[in-house]
Specification:
heterodimer; A: mainly alpha; MetI-like fold; 13 helices; B: mainly alpha; 12 helices; 72% helix; 0% strand; flat
Chain lengths: 318, 286
């Protein structure tokens, strides 16, 4: 039984679960979109939907084959990078998504770069001066951000930075990103909003992780030996909290997936999430399916990564 | 005199039983009760019919006639928020009861029976946890169209795996206790074990979990409505009110500010209430 608790065994087990989850998720995504009311061919043809035309279109789209067969075909296509063709404008889904995906990744990347250092500093600081005014202020702020919907954080930042202070444009995403200053102005609002959403989680989890290590006997020992409080946290508690903190970072970044859907919509940011919300309006199945899979895969990778970090960084499992 | 004080000090008041709330918890509870009252009686208190255009100006400011201003069509925002309370609170409550009831029942069965049933169910529901919640809602609502029953069931389905996981973990702990072993030895049925032995012992934490999940559900519902996939016009919940009036945001119209405040007060006060629940309810093991 001993080998069951080896970390690499647990990691590969976790990867197996992630893979299984991915299969179930793709199954759910495919069949949820299959449930769309009305026949796709009929919807597409509109006025011209004579029975012959519908039958012909169904055949050319492959809709007359059984759903399970199409599911497997779709899955194999996905695995080879073939995302299918959009129903609405006959462009390949890959073509539609590629530019948008790099926009979304750019946004996510900037948010990560902004929020991780800030959140870690504030989280560790709050843990270091636990119970102080600073700690309580941070705690109230993060609880408030977590308790409200993402769009409200966006609304508030627009009110503060655009309406009251007048520093930034309100809701339109500036197409002009030629000069550095213009680009900064265009990205500021979505980045601020998402950073707030992601950081709030990260600060709370970082604080909890550091406090947990502060309460261990070896840190208490350092304190009894007369080490300074800051030294105690930085050189004794922090190295041991690194695993849980990395876990917290990965887990908090998974909040980007939900946040980005709202933020791209509210600021008209040309990313994958906006593409998907628009595809929902036009009922463009292949596009919805592919976007949904992109989001599920990123979410799943982040939470799997968080779990694996947690397993590998726990010395008791080695 | 002494007998009197001893008698009084022996009275089982909520405080002595460990069921009293601190100030923050009481404030939270007061706000929750306020919104519950509005959800029931709100439409009776509304100064104007919620769907009627009463002001020729749109995005009107706060005034004596229209306390919270008017919306993008000139409808009274106060009346629309009062009406929206029913949708937001009602849908979320229905969804949270279905998801927690389902999760708790399945979790208790899985913990008591164990074996392959437990394993298959746990793996399957864990897999559903791997779908981001807003995305799940987006795809389902896009697929079957938005109506109130669909919203309730979708939201319930999103949070059932979490409720299951929580209830199962609690039940597994209770399941190892001596009184369960004794009950098994007496030859009690699985149903008896679940209803009479396990359920009463996990009830407190489950109620706290219900509150946390209620907040999540309010947030996802508002998010869906904000994307235009939630409650459909002419009706509107708080999220839909923000969506309708988002154009007014660039000049800080009260029409977009007050529905947001309504959501925030409800979710923050539920969180405060749950955080300050007496330890006796939150965690009976302490």
């Amino acid at each position: 039984m001993r080998h069951k608790h080896k970390p690499w065994f647990l990691v590969s087990q976790r990867l197996g679960i992630a893979f299984l989850t991915l299969i179930i998720v793709s199954f759910a995504v495919f069949f949820a979109t299959e449930l769309l009311p009305g026949d796709v061919a009929e919807v597409l043809l509109g006025q011209a939907a004579t029975p012959e035309a519908v039958a012909a279109l169904r055949e050319s789209m492959g809709l007359d084959t059984p759903a399970l067969g199409r599911f497997i075909g779709w899955l194999l296509g996905l695995a080879q990078g073939d995302l299918g063709t959009s129903y609405v404008n006959n462009m390949t889904v890959a073509e539609l998504i590629s530019g948008r995906l790099s926009n979304s990744l750019k946004l996510a990347g900037i948010v990560t770069l902004v929020s991780v250092p800030i959140a870690l500093t504030l989280g560790i600081g709050a843990a270091m001066w636990q119970g102080s005014l600073f700690d309580r202020g941070i705690s109230i702020l993060t609880i408030s951000v977590i308790s409200v919907p993402e769009f409200m954080v966006a609304t508030l930042s627009v009110l503060i930075f655009a309406v009251w202070l007048g520093w930034l444009p309100a809701l339109s995403f500036g197409a002009d990103t030629s000069s550095f200053l213009e680009m900064l102005r265009a990205y500021a609002m979505p980045v601020i909003t998402l950073s707030f959403v992601v950081s709030a989680q990260m600060i709370r989890m970082t604080r909890a992780a550091v406090i947990e290590t502060i309460n261990t006997p070896y840190v208490e020992m350092a304190l009894l030996k007369g080490a300074l409080r800051s030294r105690m946290v930085i050189s004794h508690a922090l190295p041991n909290a690194l695993g849980p903190i990395a876990n917290a970072v990965a887990l908090s970044l998974s909040y980007l997936v939900g946040g980005v859907i709202i933020v791209e919509t509210i600021f008209n940011y040309p990313g994958v999430a906006k593409l998907m919300v628009d595809a929902v309006a036009t009922r463009d199945l292949p596009l919805i399916q592919s976007c949904a899979m992109i989001f599920c895969v990123s979410y799943l990778s982040l939470i799997t990564l968080a779990d694996m970090i947690a397993i590998l960084s726990n010395p008791r499992l080695r | 005199m002494t007998t009197r004080t001893t008698f009084l000090s022996a009275l089982p008041t909520p405080k002595r039983l460990g069921y009293s709330f601190n100030l923050t918890g009481r404030i939270g509870l007061a706000v929750i009760l306020f919104w519950a009252f509005i959800a029931i009686f709100g439409p009776l208190l509304a100064p104007y019919p919620a769907g009627e255009i009463v002001d020729w100006d749109y995005f009107g400011p706060m005034s004596d006639k229209f306390w919270l201003g008017t919306d993008y069509l000139g409808r009274d925002i106060l009346s629309r928020i009062l009406m929206g309370t029913r949708y937001t609170v009602g849908i979320s409550l229905a969804a949270v009861f279905i998801s927690v009831a389902g999760g708790v029942i399945l979790g208790m069965i899985a913990a008591v029976t164990g074996g392959w049933f437990d394993m298959v169910l746990s793996r399957l529901l864990d897999a559903f946890n791997g779908i981001p919640s807003l995305l799940f809602g987006l795809v389902t609502v896009a697929a079957v169209g938005s109506s109130i029953p669909v919203l309730v069931l979708t939201l319930a389905a999103i949070y059932l795996p979490g409720a299951y996981r929580f209830a199962r973990a609690l039940s597994v702990n209770v399941n190892t206790m001596d009184f369960i072993t004794v009950a098994r030895a007496r030859g009690e049925t699985t149903v008896y074990l679940i209803v009479r032995e396990i359920f009463p012992n996990i009830l407190g934490p489950v109620l706290a979990d219900l509150g946390v999940r209620f907040v999540f559900i309010v947030l996802v519902l508002s998010g869906l409505s904000f994307l235009g996939l939630g409650v459909q016009p002419p009706n509107a919940d708080w999220g839909a009110l923000v969506r309708e009036n988002i154009e007014g945001l660039s000049f800080g119209a009260p029409a977009v500010v007050f529905p947001s405040i309504a959501i925030a007060t409800l979710t923050i006060s539920v969180n405060l209430f749950i955080d300050n629940l007496p330890t006796k309810i939150r965690d009976r093991s302490e």
